[in-house]
């Protein structure tokens, strides 16, 4: 059985900035638990020497040359912003890191 | 904010063993950003070097800058690291407006380079080996300005303004393993390490390496444990340490702050702290997130980097001489004392002196120009000496004219002033300002005669063995010739006269 506790769901919700009600927490804990258990089943099925797949297509070294391409104008860049000032995006103050 | 209590430094070192760990972020000087074609440029108008990719608009896709990967591999090699046969990008998820995507594209369990070491020599000659855990590629975040509140700092800010020009600029983060055994020298070692990394990436020309612009930034981890204890103490990570002097000060401060808390029976909170250079202390930031909270996962929009051995060797062949070895070689070639050489290093003048010597000046003369007159002039103009409008070749030329007797030291300084004023090459300045040394012996003899007439007892004194009496006459002659005489030659002529 998974260890998706209501507290863990609340923690994840706060990391993701998603507002959840207590009711939803209970429901999500159950649903996420089912998913985690299902993934655990897959883990059981593969042996330890299988490399995890990070990309569905076996490709590597897809690069771009170091060339400057035109950027958006400041006006275009800010056009989708709910709020802006002095050519910058304006956001609510957050007491956090620099 | 309550002021931290600090334990006297010597006492802290006596009671506790210091363990440090350093994370240095190096901004690469590629033309374009890490994952898009926006210009990687400092000082542009806000939000003008941005595109859908670096402001995280839906549907945009990243594409890896090849030059950034090359520079990252080069840094890994210069750190003596192994280069990973497969490197993957990962998403580091967090909500903060410095990146609009809600994640930073970074590397997690497969960094491009790992297991290296850097040899550090402190000023007193003591050597340390700093082991490198890893160096990984990631993107820089945007720049926030906190507005409102009394101080302009985060606390009390009413809102923040975001400029995404820096978002997506390629970074290499270099992480050391814990460094033990530096004791009282831990702050100095931390500073020397950051200086070594800065010098290295500058010499490699993979970064502009200007700390005042944030091209090289350091996060310093510090923990203490009572002497004899095996288990590592709780660490703090001090951010915002953006000069070499700050690194030393911030580490020293944390040692004293933590020592006071631990000695009083308290415990250290694992947290991020901010260094305030102006006030010389750190303040608490957020509690440090666990790696789990970042919910790293492989970046699905980017494929792995699998550098071929030939590619790695090609990059290795382009690496410049290791800065530490170069310094050792140059000091030996030039025959500078440790003190003389340190003056050159501390003033960041190694390149200038080397170029001046290469242009034909004697090493000691080149050193004196750059650490003396030119540093003084640069200081007066509030620029660094390498920004003065004079080239090492011009300095070497002026020195050659002194050596050949065409200029005196005083005249040479006038020539320098002329070059700096944009009057042309040294020869042109000499021509225009009429600065040539008077080599007309007749004129010198006449001036000497005139001076001796004013001070008739000088010759007698010289004959009695008081050679220093000639000084007054030399001074008078130099004055009469407007400084444009060779003082040594004047002295010779006076002594001849006395015989």
Describe how the helices and strands are arranged:
The complex is a heterodimer of chains A (98) and B (499).
Chain A: H1 6-15, H2 22-45, E1 63-64, H3 74-78, E2 84-85, E3 88-92
Antiparallel strand pairs in A: 2-3
Helix pairs in contact in A: 1-2
Chain B: H1 9-15, E1 16-27, E2 64-65, H2 66-78, E3 82-83, E4 90-93, E5 103-106, E6 113-121, E7 127-139, E8 143-147, E9 159-163, E10 170-176, H3 186-203, E11 216-226, E12 236-241, H4 244-263, E13 271-276, E14 281-287, E15 297-298, H5 309-317, H6 323-334, H7 338-346, H8 350-358, H9 363-381, H10 392-403, H11 409-420, H12 426-433, H13 441-454, H14 458-463, H15 470-480, H16 487-498
Parallel strand pairs in B: 12-13
Antiparallel strand pairs in B: 1-10, 1-11, 3-6, 4-5, 4-15, 6-7, 7-10, 8-9, 11-12, 13-14
Helix pairs in contact in B: 1-4, 3-4, 8-9, 8-10, 10-11, 11-12, 13-15, 15-16
Written account of the structure:
The complex is a heterodimer of chains A (98) and B (499). By secondary structure, chain A is mainly alpha-helical. Chain A has a domain at 6-45: Orthogonal Bundle (Histone, subunit A), CATH 1.10.20. Chain A is built from 3 helices and 3 strands; from the N terminus they run ααβαββ. The longest helix of chain A is centred in the middle third of the chain and has 24 residues, at 22-45. The relative contact order of chain A is 0.08. With 499 residues, chain B is an alpha+beta fold. Helices cover 38% and strands 19% of the residues of chain B. Chain B has 16 helices and 15 strands. Chain B has a 9-stranded mixed β-sheet with strand order 3-6-7-10-1-11-12-13-14. A 3-stranded antiparallel β-sheet of chain B has the order 5-4-15, with no helix packed on it. The model of chain B has no long low-confidence stretch (mean pLDDT 90). At the A-B interface, β1, α3 and β3 of A face β2, α2, β8 and β9 of B. β3 of chain A pairs antiparallel with β9 (159-163) of chain B, so a sheet runs across the interface.
